[in-house]
Amino acid sequence: MAKRDRRPAQRAGAAGACPCGQGLPYADCCGRLHRGEADAPTAEALMRSRYAAFAVGEPDYLLRSWHSRTRPPRLLLDLGQRWTGLEIVGADQGGLFDSTGTVEFRAHYREGGRQGTLTERSRFVREDGRWVYLDAE
């Protein structure tokens, strides 16, 4: 998500489904990453967790998972935007033994009564051994 000013107004409950689309409860899925209990094992997992962070309103996690060279000093999220679904279009590298990876996705949202889609090809790298978002192509 290269946009730096987006967020919906709703948070996922601990027992609610994770917005990332993996089918697990938020608390057991991306919630663990957001709370700092685990690191994303792959670039795709990090991308999904960042989408979920936008969906539940976790700007601190978004900043922590952003590369130090491209990270903004602060992040303001849009309270009027509600993220409604994620589609992974494709991924290149970004596995357990890779140091770089890309993930192309479509993130669907609703804002002001209108539906929209953000399509992006995000680049990820390892920084200090952890996957981080670098930028979008």
UniProtKB/TrEMBL annotation:
Residues annotated as domain YchJ-like middle NTF2-like: 42-136
Domain of life: Bacteria
Xref: Pfam families: YchJ_M-like (PF17775)
Recorded family membership: Belongs to the UPF0225 family.
Protein name: UPF0225 protein C1I95_05470
Species: Micromonospora craterilacus
